[in-house]
Amino acid sequence: MPGEYVYLVTGTAILTDDLFNQYGGSANLFDTATPSQRNLAYMMAEQLVVEEIGTLLSPTTLTGTFNLPADWRLLLPFKFVRSVSSVTLIHEAGCDCADDAVELSGCAWLRQADAGIINLVECGRWVQGSIACGCFNRGDGGPIQVRVVFSAGHQNVANMPGPMMGLVTMADLMMEQIVDPAGAHGGPGDPSLASFSDSGYSASYQFLQDTALGGSPRANFAARMLEPLKFRRALRL
Amino acid sequence: MSRSAVFKKDPQAIKDFTIDWREWLAATDILSTSNWTVDDTTMAVTQTTNTTGTATIWLASGTINTIVSVVNRITTAGGRQQDQTIYVKIYQE
To answer: A137 and A70, same structural domain?
Structure first.
């Protein structure tokens, strides 16, 4: 399930001008970029970091609807789950795909919160319908899906120097791509250099992929930026 | 078998639904009385039975495309009381 869901950063959770300067972000870039461009760079940096670490940079309440796992153990799409505030079990009422699902409340235990695993608990007594009371593949009358409202994300990241340095470094790279892309190590698109030679200039890049947008460093950068919007196929249904 | 179940039933079908109270009952307690409330007057209760640990209702009729709430209220020999609701969607099979 992780990887199928994305969190789109639409505002900064951590990065500010003060923190950027405090952690040694480029003064030239800072002075060249407008406040709006700096803010965009912070948001892009936070988006990339959220994807990298698999959770949010501050505790955030999220709602997701998931297929009910057979063992009632649900792997949430974000790690470092702090709490589950609501569990709603969704039953298909009848087999007609009509909008008449019945929603019943449940609850959950945090099983391995750091790994994003919770144990769902269905309320009520055991109920037995007569034979073939349910629909096709769920003959037990039980729920088909579950909607979970949960909080996930790290706390106090702004007070963690290491992660902050990582965030500011990413912000610096993003700001560079906005206001001075040619200044990036390897040029526009910030390609990774595999080798470099000074006299009689020669450079070779690594990690460049032949994306649908093209294979150039800039096309690869664009593909990276668009990654949160991409559909990612589940490993198995 | 499930908890918080939602079932389907054809209006012409007569079907039984059983709630198993044994997990909820205290070890020394048993089910004493069982009453059922059905929130749809077109749904007919043809029979109800109970054992020391389970309560069963038989349902007939109903109006197509309605979801009927069926509540079982039990009292135990020890004086405890509890409700459990099941839902039945009336569906043309």
So the answer is: yes
Q: Which residue of B has its CA nearest to A105?
A: B4
Q: Dihedral through CA B47, CA B51, CA B55, CA B58, nearest 10?
A: -20
Domain extent, residue A178, equals 17-57+156-229
Q: Judge if A68 and A116 occupy the same domain.
A: yes
Residues in chain B with CB shorter than 8 Å from the CB of A88 are none
Per-residue b or e along B18-53, where b marks 16 or more CB atoms closer than 10 Å to that residue's CB = bbbbeebbeeebebeebebebebeebeeeeeebeee
> What is the Cα–Cα distance from B2 to A70, expressed in whole angstroms?
12
Yes or no: say if A133 and A141 are a contact pair by the CB < 8 Å rule. Answer: yes
pLDDT, residue A152, reads: 96
Please name the residue that has the structure tokens 């670490």: A53
User: What confidence tier does A119 reach under pLDDT thresholds 50, 70, 90?
Assistant: very high
For range A122-138, the mean pLDDT: 63
Domain final residue pick, A94, A119, A152: A152
